[in-house]
Amino acid sequence: MKKIIFCSVLVPCILCLFYSFGFPTEQYLTSPDENHRITMIKTENGISFDYTFRGRVVLHVDSLGLVTNSMLTNDVSLKSVDKSSFEETWYPVIGKNTEVLNQYNEYTFHLQDSETGTGSYDIIFRCYNDGFAYRYVLHDGGENEIQILCERTKLRFSDDFTFWAYNRENANLGPLHSNDTSLTEVKIPMVVKTKHDLYLGIHEAAILRYAPATLKSEGKNLSFNVSETTDHGPITTSWRTFIVGDQPGDLVNSNLLQNLNEPCKIEDTSWIKPGKSMWDWRVWGYKAADGYEYLLDTKTHKRFIDFAADNNIQYLLIDADWYGPEFSADSDPTAASRRGFDIEECMAYAKDHDVGIILYLNDVGAKKFGLDRVLKQFVDWGAVGVKYGFMKGTWEEKVRHTTEVIEICAKYKLMVDFHDNPVPPSGDERTYPNLVTREFCHAQADAKRSYFPETAVSSAFINMIAGPLDYTNGWFDLNHAHSRERVFEEIPGTVTAEVAKLIVANTGWMVLPDAPEEYLKKDDLFDCIRKMPSQFDSFKVLQGGIDSYITVTRRAGEDWFVGSLTNREGRNLKINLDFLPEGKTYKATIYSDGMDAHFLNNKESYKIEEMEVEPKDILDVRLAPGGGNAIYLRSL
């Protein structure tokens, strides 16, 4: 194969130059409800577009395109434009809601080199009622590989803006003003609030082959940073996505990312079952009142399994070191037993108690002993899922290996959770719903530190735009957990907020980090967790602000759950129950912070009250500083 090498003394072709006599001055695309409008414009610099929402110009995009090593000349012409509309209702195996409307209008611009008639590529736009997206498709260059060098696109907002952004296992960035700073790299998702209080969530959908993009902030302008890559055509990039809403919660409620991914590729999905899970990792060294000390051994895991079976908990996650030190090349994940722990005995006991086992797998062991071989062995033992940790490589390598892990897990009917700075969720759980969650956040007590209440709130508005997240919420021993071997700092928060987080967080696995005995000490509060379903039927952010508080409602059959969280400030909230079906009465069990509760010095104070309510009612709830509130609404 002949490979074209980009040379710095040559000017690379920019895939955005439209010197075609046949290209109209303007073309526009609207959303089905006509609130969103994209107007494509031919300029001296190529193709640009304006994004308008309800008649107001919000964003101007200059010089749309990629810089490549293509042999295309600057005379690029428009071959044709395909216009189409699409509407369907689909039913997720795993997701925020039991059904999703996928409705959009689409333009596909087909372009090619005017002189040679080769080097063709497409730019595809889709416009939804909750935002818009575009992607590039670079067609096969024959024997030549295609090299993408960068993306030239510039996003220019009409006014100054405020923004927030994902920040790995740290407190999220923001709020930052567009004129406050110049950042060379801002990770996605990024949330922008315009001068007119409109919110845009900038992310990507279908990150399946190439490294995720980042953003560069330059005053009112943003630009995409994409990693260089070389590949044989056709090259299909991820979707650059813009979710739009009047409130920050609208961005989280959206299913735009999932709609931009392909339908489910798994024919039989009956084995994909979200649920609640016990977790051994943070409990190591805990000493129960009866004198028992939790260790990494079969006896300890049987104790977890007994508790799970008795309390409507579907799984046990057995974390790192069960097959040896996780980063050691000598640790064999296909070995059945070591140091008093017998995986086959544990699996048999779990099967007898109808509890599924999720096994940790480090990237080192997966690659040394062969991913296919390891996963087959897990299934032969009876495992139902995998937690995959510490993937190594460039971002492009991590993206491709993530896809490989998901597909091989699907082959063996294994669910999977990615940890330790994973590839961003991008709606791909629609295509492979065995991808149940990822630690795309600062999970509580992870990274050897704890997060503060404001991060719990902001993560729900920023990180959760991307997809289902594994936060490992649900701590009950907030006063003494840091004395354990695997908990490194005190945990700020209130015990009621820990329950509320399980309602607020969208995830396929609710991984509970505490000891069974700690849950039983507060059994009346734990009963709210016990009553939670293995998967909720709906998700909606009712109210909130990125830096202040959030209220989320979830349906579970005929019952409902409501969760609220606040930052370090205490607050009183009014929760309108008009989301409930008309004509029904509910028994509301309200789990509140105690009057003297505080996220630093009185974490475990709570109270519980009951009352009958109807859809016309408005509940007054109080949240302590750094606290939360949970409500269980049982249909009468």
From TrEMBL:
Its cofactor is Ca(2+). This is Glycoside hydrolase family 97 catalytic domain-containing protein. Residues 536-633 form the Glycosyl-hydrolase 97 C-terminal oligomerisation domain. It comes from the Bacteria. InterPro entries: Aldolase_TIM (IPR013785), GH (IPR017853), GH-type_carb-bd (IPR014718), GH97_C (IPR029483), GH97_catalytic (IPR019563), GH97_N (IPR029486), Glycosyl_hydrolase_97 (IPR052720). Keywords: Calcium, Hydrolase, Signal. GO terms for molecular function: hydrolase activity. It comes from Flagellimonas marina. Residues 29-263 form the Glycosyl-hydrolase 97 N-terminal domain. Monomer. Residues 1-22 form the signal peptide. Pfam families: GH97_C (PF14509), GH97_N (PF14508), Glyco_hydro_97 (PF10566). Residues 292-439 form the Glycosyl-hydrolase 97 catalytic domain.
